[in-house]
UniProtKB/TrEMBL annotation, chain A:
An MF annotation (GO) of this entry: ATP binding
Cross-referenced SUPFAM superfamilies: MOP-like (SSF50331), P-loop containing nucleoside triphosphate hydrolases (SSF52540)
Family of the protein in this entry: Belongs to the ABC transporter superfamily.
Name of the protein described by the UniProt record: Carbohydrate ABC transporter ATP-binding protein (CUT1 family)
Organism: Neorhizobium alkalisoli
Phylogenetic placement of the source organism: Bacteria, Pseudomonadati, Pseudomonadota, Alphaproteobacteria, Hyphomicrobiales
TrEMBL record, chain B:
Species whose genome carries this gene: Neorhizobium alkalisoli
Subcellular location: Cell membrane
InterPro entries for this protein: MetI-like, MetI-like_sf
Family annotation (CDD domains): TM_PBP2 (cd06261)
GO terms classed as biological process: transmembrane transport
Occurrences of domain ABC transmembrane type-1 (ranges): 86-278
Principal localisation: membrane
Name of the molecule in the record: Carbohydrate ABC transporter membrane protein 2 (CUT1 family)
Length: 364, 293
């Protein structure tokens, strides 16, 4: 039985429908990440779960209890805000204890709870300070402490890492992950960063314009995106989208002078001959021959002109071009490529997915 | 920046600076001159004042005029000094400032964080009220105070000043809270604080700078008010400004300029005091660190 359930949730602001019938369920202890571009409705959805924004219709159920019309404080949830929203007039200690104080917890019990949370988050030395005396990472930790101390049924995170610098973001991300593993808390987390979504989630919901595009585990979302939008949004660099046409025994890529590759195993049905398709292949599935997956059943070796080389240190991203169509390959760092020359790329078609260009959906 | 330093040489920049300082000092002296005359005259004897040199320092400074102004000068027919009226003014100004500031803060809080349909119209009308000239409401207000049994009382004056101050105090607080992060209010709501608790525990404690601004503004306005004082109170219940006028205009026989001046200094002291004490807090930004910005 699911712990958090969102049923056909809709939200209209003015004449604009922000959420168009959202259905999501999350099991206890799950880590749900809502991901999508700006304006997709993910923050609106989170605010609706928090009770800060009443939905136009639909229901929100936490642990079997319908909370749709409950006041935020009665839902037994805690929220970590993007700006941290620490009370500037209170010390760290008072900030963390505030919710307990509002709930009439006595002073001694408050102090114990604060001390315990401070220990978990290693902020004991900061308790007497005010938010203005803390660094960004420390404020972030205090904001989490304020949520943790209540031991709520559901934690809500609204883009909590977007105000941190890149290095700190990776650190705090790992902390949130281990926090989830240690406390087994149920978490709903909003981000526009697909890497955060992949690393943290047990379940990802990809949103676009108020509509759920796909729900799945990070692996499902990454490997079998439901449509072109999800495929393009998740993963960096983005998935290669190669235009092709179904022919007898395979898919013809790169126009007239191109190649015919076998139909990927992800497609179980049959493709009508002559049908236009889009072949999606992640950059790591295109590589130099020495790095090609030896266990792959279907590998196509294709020669293409190199138009760009981007070394990242660990790998090198090489852009190849055939007949006006470009693709990005992820190769060894010291791969012997040179700009303008032809290079033999290995396409691992085991990893490929095929989309219908008209509907944008993945073809099974 | 670099363009300016290239076209203006160091020497001419310094000359300009001297000129600016000289102008500022001259202007400051002009503005301070009345205060100087007031203070020196209040310390002189009547004979010395009649000597005619207004700008001279007192030859034999004495606080006799101050003592007389405070406790013995005749206001109208009673010769008990201005002290009673001074307290009248204080009894009026302290509650009027406190109530109008608090209500203004509450209004600003509601108008920014608990928006309701039509909040813009309500705020617009409050602003509009600020700009209705005082003279236009004197008679309706007098009728209202009479009906409420508050005429010729300090409570009545407090009421009038609260009503008239509310537009401005609301404006101050609304603009301040407009920039106050909504997320703090949301966080407090989730934490379980209600309407008034959020106001008392989160909003007011972070409103230091705007409270100071409002208090200085309201204190100065209400203390210095003459029109409402003279219209809605009389005799013993008058505020300081009205008494000062009566003192100066009702002296019979010899005009005691030194006593008049001393009384005027008394009338000016509280606003100066408030500014000197509270002005320091003007610059202290309490919001630092609430939200990373």
């Amino acid at each position: 039985m699911s712990f958090l359930e969102i049923k056909n949730l809709r939200k209209k602001i003015g004449s604009v429908e922000i959420l168009k019938g959202i259905d999501i369920s999350l099991e206890k202890g799950g880590f749900l990440v809502l991901v999508g571009p700006s304006g997709c409705g993910k923050s609106t959805l989170l605010n609706a779960i928090a009770g800060l924004l009443p939905p136009s219709s639909g229901d929100i159920v936490i642990d079997g209890q319908v909370v749709t019309d409950l006041h935020p404080s009665k839902r037994d949830i805690a929220m970590v805000f993007q700006s941290y929203a620490l009370y500037p007039n209170m010390t760290v200690e008072e900030n963390i204890a505030f919710a307990l104080e509002m709930r009439g917890v006595d002073k001694a019990a408050r102090a114990t709870a604060v001390a315990q949370v401070a220990k978990t988050l290693q902020i004991e030395h900061l308790l007497k300070r005010r938010p203005s005396q803390l660094s960004g990472g420390q404020r972030q930790r205090v904001a989490m402490g304020r949520a943790l101390v209540r031991q709520p049924r559901v934690f809500l995170f609204d883009e909590p890492l977007s105000n941190l610098d890149a290095k700190l973001r990776v650190e705090v991300r790992a902390e949130i992950k281990s926090l989830h593993q240690n406390t087994n808390a149920t978490i709903v987390y909003v981000t526009h960063d697909q890497i955060e979504a992949m690393t943290l989630a047990t379940k990802i919901v990809v949103l676009k314009e108020g509509v759920v595009q796909q729900v799945g585990t990070p692996a499902e979302i990454y490997n079998r995106p439901a449509n072109l939008f999800v495929a393009d949004f998740m993963g960096s660099p983005a998935m290669n989208m190669l235009k092709g046409r179904a022919v007898v025994g395979g898919i013809a890529l790169f126009g007239k002078d191109g190649v015919i590759v076998p139909i990927p195993p992800s497609v179980t049905g049959s493709l009508t001959e002559g049908k236009e398709v889009i072949l999606g292949l992640r950059p790591e599935a295109i590589t130099d021959e020495s790095l090609a997956d030896q266990t792959a059943r279907s590998v196509a070796r294709i020669e293409a002109a190199v138009t760009m080389i981007e070394p990242t240190g660990s790998d090198t991203f090489v852009t190849g071009k055939i007949d006006g169509a470009s693709f990005t390959a992820r190769t060894r760092a010291d791969v012997p490529v040179e700009l303008g020359q032809n290079f033999r790329f290995a396409f691992n078609l085991d990893k490929a997915v095929v989309f219908d260009p008209e509907s944008g959906r993945r073809l099974d | 920046m670099s363009g300016a330093t290239e076209t203006v040489s160091a020497g001419s920049a310094r000359t300009a600076r001297y000129f600016i300082y000289a102008a500022l000092i001259v202007l400051a002296l002009v503005y301070l001159l009345p205060l100087y005359v007031m203070l020196t005259t209040s310390l002189k004897s009547l004979d010395e004042i009649r000597g005619g040199d207004m700008l001279a320092l007192p030859k034999d400074p004495s606080v006799a005029a101050w003592v007389k102004a405070w406790g013995e000068a005749c206001i109208g027919v009673s010769c008990v000094g201005i002290k009673g009226y001074f307290w009248n003014s204080l009894k009026m100004v302290v509650p009027a400032v406190a109530i109008s500031t608090l209500l203004g803060a509450l209004n600003g809080y509601v108008l920014t964080k608990w928006r309701f349909p039509g909040h813009k119209i309500v705020f617009g009308m409050m602003l509009f009220a600020c700009f209705i000239p005082f003279q236009a409401v004197l008679i309706p207000m007098a009728r209202l105070l009479g009906a409420a049994g508050l005429s010729n009382s300090t409570a009545g004056l407090v009421f009038v000043h609260v009503v008239y101050g509310l537009g401005f105090t609301t404006l101050f607080f609304r603009n301040y809270y407009e920039a106050f992060p909504d997320e703090l209010v949301k966080a407090a709501m989730i934490d379980g604080a209600g309407f008034f608790r959020i106001f008392w525990r989160i909003m007011l404690p972070t409103s230091g700078p705007i409270i100071v601004v409002t208090v200085i503004y309201q204190f100065t306005n209400i203390w210095n008010d003459f029109l409402f004082g003279v219209s809605f109170s009389s005799g013993e219940a008058s505020p300081m400004t009205v008494a000062l006028n009566n003192l100066v205009s009702s002296s019979t026989g010899v005009k005691e300029y030194n006593v008049d001046m001393a009384a005027a200094v008394f009338a000016a002291l509280p606003t100066l005091f408030v500014y000197v004490v509270a002005g320091r807090y003007f610059v202290r930004g309490l919001m630092a660190g609430a939200v990373k910005g």
